[in-house]
Amino acid sequence: METLEEIKARIEAAVSGAQLEILANDSPSGQRSLLVDDNHALTVAMFLRNDPGLQLDYCSNVTGVDWPDKVEKIKTKVKKVVDGAEQEVEETIEKRTPGFLEAVYHLYSMSLKHGPAILRLRTENRTDKVHLPSLTPVWRGAEFQEREIFDLYGIVFDGHPDLRRILMWDGFKDHPMRKDYVEPDDYEYEPTPHAEVLEKARAHLPQPQPKEASA
Amino acid sequence: MIDEGLKSELSKQGIFTTTFNELIEWGYNKGRANSVWPLQFGLACCAIEMIAASMARYDIARFGSEVFRPSPRQADLMIVAGTVTKKMAPQVVRLYNQMPEPKYVIAMGACAISGGPFKQGYNVLKGIDRYIPVDVHIPGCPPRPEALLHALMTLQKKIEEQHLTGPQQARHLNPEAPSEFPVPEYGEHDLVPPKNEAVWQPPKQAKDDTQGNV
Known about the structure:
- The complex is a heterodimer.
- Chain A is of the alpha/beta class.
- Chain A has helices at 4-14, 41-50, 142-152, 195-202, and strands at residues 20-23, 33-36, 58-67, 70-82, 85-97, 100-109, 114-122, 131-133, 156-158.
- Chain A has 4 helices and 9 strands, in the order H-E-E-H-E-E-E-E-E-E-H-E-H.
- In chain A, the strands form 3 sheets. Chain A has a 5-stranded mixed sheet, with helices on one face.
- Chain B is α/β, with parallel strands linked by helices.
- In chain B, 32% of the residues lie in helices and 8% in strands.
- Chain B has 7 helices and 5 strands.
- In chain B, the strands form 2 sheets. In chain B, strands 1-2-3 form a 3-stranded parallel sheet. A two-stranded antiparallel sheet of chain B has the order 4-5.
- In chain B, helix 4 links the parallel strand 1 and strand 2 (104-108).
- In chain B, helix 2 (20-33) runs antiparallel to helix 6 and helix 3 (46-54) crosses helix 6.
- The chains are: A alpha/beta, B alpha/beta.
- At the A-B interface, helix 4 of A face loops of B.
């Protein structure tokens, strides 16, 4: 298969206005991916599937990623006038990077026996602007997996033929795979090696009476 | 009514004494215990072991339980074989409610008795005994077919010891005892209610041996 740079250049030539970005991956696999903007995602996907040199006709996996809001503390030295004399004072500034949700598509070619090419789509934020175009019209196999992402991450796929929850029931409000999901607190005592679970269970037990100091 | 001591003394001499009630009870219980028809449904991998138990190698027919009924109306025993997800729990309780009395429940495997490896998850019920009364619990992940057969024999023993009259009367003969239990509803974050307090109570305190560890 062509390199990701070549694919990117060809997409840019074929789809006018498409904003693409190659995302690095510093894990041992080093598998890089192509970030596509929402507006051109469907056209780009069609190109990837239909292009005779690529023929990425098989979407093997669609998954979601939750990137929570990032708070970085940056320390800077600022000159300030303290007690009449100029001094250098350290100040910490909190830099807030808003989080977003991602849908990741792993694409292979059955006819040319190559792959994977990895496509990423990003939402604007994690709360209200969570819409992405559905790629189910391009790869039918993505249907259930996009429903699963809708269920567990809360990304709304526009153009999906049947967007409903797939694992949890319809009245369920949460998205359990999000980092800030709080599970129902129904812990009770159990013999377990997990200290975290015991700690949660302990909150439900009557508090032990403090032992009287004995000689 | 014959004296217990005399009865035991007579039996040592080879004389068997009984009452008409005891004889009826014995026959009634023997009949029921040796034709326990399970409900044919499986929820996860434990069901494979249940199927294995019903096939020639382990042959649950030796215990009179080979007639797996596809309808709850014809079943005596519910084998909860596998993970009960919160989405599936209302259906399991509904099936139990649809079974005619006398009815029994075997919770098979780690998931059905406690939630198993999924206990700390958000989507798995932490044991079916939160909603319906369970007669026999089988640990194991999954339990071997022999374990299921042992549970069935335990249940048969339990059935044979049931009484038709008196203070230890069987549950299904008592018109006061409930035979149906409320079906939980799907809530916004969890099942509502998360457990049936009348059937199951959480442990009130941790055991002493673990108290020092935390």
